[in-house]
Amino acid sequence: MKDINLKFFTITKYEQIIILLTIIIPLLFYDSPYMQGLFIFIMMWVVLGSSWNLLAGYTGQVSFGHAAYFGIGAYAAGLPFMHWGISPWWGLLTGGITAVVLGYLLGIVVFKLRGPYFALGTLATAEILRIIFGQEEWLTNGHNGILYVTTWVDKYPYYFIIWAIALATVFSVKALMKSKAGFYFLSIREDEDAAKAIGINTHKYKNISMAVSTFWAGTAGAFYMIYMGFIDPEVVFALHNISIITILVGIIGGVGTIWGPAVGAIIMVLVQELFRSAFFGLAPQWISKVHALVFGLLVIFVILYMAGGVVGDWDLIVKKFRKFRLKKATK
Amino acid sequence: MEMVLQSLVSGLLIGGLYAILGIGMTLIMGVLKIINLAHGQILMVSMYITWTLWYYLGIDPYLSIFISVPVIFFLAEAISKYLLNPLIEKESILPENQVLMTVGIGMVLVELARSIFTSDYRSVRTAYSDKVWHLGKISISFPLFVAFAFSLVLTAAMFYLLMKTDLGRSIRAASQDKIAATLMGISSEKITIFTYGLGSALIAAAGSVFLPVYYLYPDVGPLFTIKAFVITILGGMGSTIGAIAGGLVLGIAETFGATYISQGYRDAFGLFIFLVVLVFLPGGLKRFTKV
């Protein structure tokens, strides 16, 4: 296998292997809709984590409100269906665009803020949206949500749709980070004032980063509507279950790395699911109660000992492991 | 007219409640320069301690302050010493690492509470829970009034501590300029640990006072965390007077909003004010009060 050189980025042989594996492994579980569902969720979190990573990990704008874009994407798919019977599938096109428009409008306010204030500002905007979508029943059906009978029972079509979106997200981030804009993003992350001083239009590039990031988050939201067939504001605008988990996926995998959020998504879903199912029934039942606790402890561990995340600190982990083996051998 | 007065009184009382939340947060934000997203969760832990003491031993929620406050103080000192402080020197891509750590801590606290107490709603019924005083046509709830009085006392005590004692001067010095404070012989590490403990102890006290008013469940935290940072931004970081002013403003804004605009939007008014303050009045009310 050789690296494939495309115009904007290269697909290395490792990445080709990953792509092949993501096709083959789900096909091995053809008789288990449960496992297929897990793979779909992993891919959804890859999209969300990577989109957050572009804005936070590469551009330094740590958003605590990605649920806003996820939610608006879901509603962009759901609302036309509810009011006019238009198929939610159009959401895959409109969801991302709606999220970009929202991101631009919110950006007018939140890009005035920096650091922790930016984090709080984005958190507040997402919470305000959650409350509005819960209250304006004439528009959104409030907490009763929007119901849509899903198109297929089979899960494979959904998997390959979200798989394609996930690949597009990861490689769009990769291509962007290879381009000039990517270097501007990094300079904004390292020192915004210095970036401005050397003539970078920081406002413009922050908006570009935001636009790409929100586009994919919105698309993921639209996919959620199509796949789950039900949305309500408490689910799609959730502070903890969407915004915070998105951040944790990025942190565990490694902020500021291309494949970090993907690895983080796999770890997040698998760790939680392993414990939730009590290691597929092999372990005592009480373990299923602590699945989220284990994930929280994992987050603390990663931040304390692997500040760069699993991908970012991979060399360090390998080195430590080798040292450990050497010690064992000499003993 | 009565409605206006009633809203004003209710708003002030709720605002007093919020002010206690804000004081703890403003101290931590002022000195540690981090957003403590585990704030509400620590409050939740304190509420569970109080609830357990009341349920099994029959201790009055107001009295259990003397137990919940020291417990939370040492818990928070340990968190600060072993989980937050080591991150200061660590190289990382995002400067917000400590904030993310508080998210992780918050998650662990919630899940611990959930696995011990399950997700059931709990509340404390005391003789004074439903007690209401009537002043003309205006009613004043007794637990809210206690919380209000308590927050005034607490603010006064904190103000004295910060302004008149050596410890308070050290805290203020560390919040203004860490390096300069260290050069003057203040151990900024000790101060940060102590401040996190103190800030958390304040919300632990708030937890015990809140219990007769609010329902308790493991996910109650984020609601209070958000209120606390709204107040902090409104009042200005590190300002106790600002925190009480911010708390009162938030309480009144919410009550009037709920009465005259919409009950459902109650929690949105604070967030809206918060955004407006962040953008148009950075520094908050501290710009006028200076302390």
Report on this model:
- The complex is a heterodimer of chains A (331) and B (291).
- Chain A is mostly helical and 331 residues long.
- In chain A, 75% of the residues lie in helices and 2% in strands.
- Chain A has a domain at 32-261.
- In chain A, the strands form two sheets. Chain A has a two-stranded antiparallel sheet.
- In chain A, 45% of the residues are buried.
- The model of chain A has no long low-confidence stretch (mean pLDDT 91).
- With 291 residues, chain B is an all-alpha fold.
- Chain B has one domain (2-288): ABC transporter involved in vitamin B12 uptake, BtuC (Orthogonal Bundle), CATH 1.10.3470.
- Chain B has helices at residues 2-32, 39-57, 65-84, 86-89, 97-117, 142-164, 166-176, 178-183, 188-210, 221-235, 240-260, 266-280, 286-289, and strands spanning 132-135, 138-141.
- In chain B, strands 1-2 form a two-stranded antiparallel ribbon.
- In chain B, α2 (39-57) packs antiparallel against α3 (65-84).
- Chain B is globular.
- The two termini of chain B are 35 Å apart.
- Classes of the chains: A mainly alpha (331), B mainly alpha (291).
- Chain A binds chain B through residues 56-57, 60, 62, 109, 112-113, 115-117, 119-121, 123-125, 127-128, 131-132, 134-135, 189, 239-240, 244, 247-248, 251, 255-256, 289-290, 292-293, 295-297, 299-300, 303-304, 307-308, 312, and chain B through 33-35, 83, 86-87, 90-97, 99-101, 103-105, 107-108, 110-112, 114-115, 219, 222, 226, 229-230, 233, 262, 264-265, 267-268, 271-272, 274-275, 278-279, 282.
